Amino acid sequence: MLKLSDLKVGDKVHYQPQHYDGEQFENGIIKEIPGFAADSRHDFYKCVRVVYNCAGDWDNYANYTSALTNLRDLKLGWC
After folding, report:
1. What is the Cα–Cα distance from 29 to 60, expressed in whole angstroms?
2. CA 74 to CA 16: how far, in whole Å?
3. Cα–Cα distance for residue pair 17/75, rounded to 1 Å
4. pLDDT tens digit string along 4-16?
5. Inter-residue contact 2 to 66 (CB < 8 Å)
6. 6 three-state secondary structure
7. Which three-class secondary structure state does DSSP give residue 43?
8. 69: β partners
């Protein structure tokens, strides 16, 4: 699993939860690392906001809606 210390806003990631097969994924860019994400008491809080859909306008990803995504479902880089 990724660690918050490995990530920063603007990093390219791909979403690949356990229920996806090895060929399924969604590319995205980290838009925000919420303050509560550093709460080490619960894995539930270890998440970041990721933009997945921006009509290919990746240079302006920050202007698009993000999804709160658990770190356990993310991997660094795009596929």
Report:
1. 11
2. 6
3. 10
4. 888 999 999 999 9
5. no
6. helix
7. helix
8. 48
